[in-house]
Design brief:
single chain; 334 residues; alpha/beta; eight-stranded parallel barrel; 11 helices; 17% strand; globular; binds flavin mononucleotide
Length: 334
């Protein structure tokens, strides 16, 4: 069934196929009476219970519209976003491309999302569904119209609106498609940003677990410095990693222009980064390993290199609806 559906979906423009899949998931949720979760290698981090380690990565359900679907498909968590303070359309289309010879995607979406207020409403409606049980991460970023010097205010606004609805919050300073965003990984800018969010968090009666998502294109010293700053501001963990701007070792024709590569070609780079950061900071930070998890073997390698939790996006696009359940049952049987 999936192989036929995949052939049809892959005939469509990649973003149109994504939007159709989201629409059908939204419609089908009314038919789901069960609240089944896939309880395999459960773990509790920061007081949050994860029924299994494999989550859906940020960017798929940017507006938090299909939460129950991800649980139903076997994922142990979902990261909504990236959400920005202001609603925005993102870059002009086409902006999402499949690279099937590489088992990869190239995207230059640039945080198309409904904005923090509307996403909060979307999540609020679904959180009270008794069937829904998996943790929700909310990933926040900077609105395109906000100048970089005012980034912290913009992040703080999203954080204030969304934190109550999140089991953990991810500060995204690593998407390649928002001009200047990655400069927030630089020491002074990162300190300024984390100071604002972390202080806002500490003012809450129940502070939320905070994580930082980094780019795989950082040099090792710069990545270690980001980890050190995360520890300094009492963050709980790192998400390693976002997409890469590198175009190394890609086969076939690659669309011109900017954008981040995800999927198989990102695996080695993001896993190496995970490994050295974990070796240095395992006692102080938890790690979400993401980048090129396409099957059970790549998932297991991420775990061996220090991931406490896993996430995937591109693997799910290529493998289809049984992706999470197949990986989890293979991990269980090994
Ligand atoms: C189409 C697309 C959109 C994405 N949007 C976001 C986003 O909004 N925020 C974010 O932090 N990461 C975003 N990502 C990055 C993913 O969350 C993930 O870090 C990256 O794709 C590597 O994982 P993968 O190889 O399993 O896809 C996006 C990835 C893709 C392919």
């Amino acid at each position: 069934m999936w192989s036929i559906a995949k052939k049809l979906l892959f005939l469509l423009d990649a973003e149109l196929a994504h939007d159709l899949a989201m629409q059908s998931l939204k419609l089908s949720k009314v038919c789901w009476s069960s609240s089944t979760t896939y309880e395999i290698f459960p773990r509790t981090l920061w007081g949050v219970h994860f029924v299994n380690p494999l989550g859906l990565a940020a960017g798929f359900d940017k507006n938090g519209e299909c939460l129950l679907a991800w649980q139903r498909l076997g994922f142990g968590s979902v990261e909504v976003g990236t959400v920005t303070a202001l609603a925005q359309p993102g870059n002009p289309q086409p902006r999402l491309f499949r690279l099937p010879q590489n088992q990869a995607l190239l995207n230059r979406l640039s945080f198309n999302n409904m904005g923090a207020e509307q996403v909060a409403k979307n999540i609020e409606k679904q959180r009270c569904d008794v069937r829904f049980k998996i943790p929700i991460g909310i990933n926040i970023g900077k609105s395109n119209v906000t100048p970089l010097k005012d980034a912290a205010k913009d992040y703080r606004q999203s954080f204030t609106v969304l934190a109550d609805l999140a089991d953990y919050v991810v500060i995204n300073v690593s998407s390649p498609n928002t001009p200047g965003l990655r400069d927030l990984q630089e020491k002074k800018a990162l300190r300024g940003l984390l100071d604002v969010i972390s202080s806002e968090n500490q003012r809450r009666s129940h502070p939320k677990p905070l994580l930082l998502k980094l780019a795989p294109d950082l040099h090792r010293d710069a990545a270690m410095q980001c980890a050190e700053i995360a520890v300094e501001f009492l963050l709980n963990g790192l998400v390693i990693s976002n997409t890469t701007v590198a175009r190394d070792n890609l086969r076939g024709e690659i669309p011109d222009g900017l954008g981040g590569i995800s999927g198989a070609p990102l695996f080695e780079k993001s896993t190496q980064m995970l490994s050295y950061l974990h070796q240095a900071y395992a006692s102080k930070l938890n790690f979400i390993g993401v980048g090129g998890i396409m099957d059970a073997l790549s998932a297991q390698i991420k775990l061996k290199n220090g991931a406490d939790l896993l996430q995937s996006y591109t693997g799910f696009i290529y493998a289809g609806p049984f992706f999470a359940r197949n990986i989890l049952s293979s991990l269980e049987s090994w």
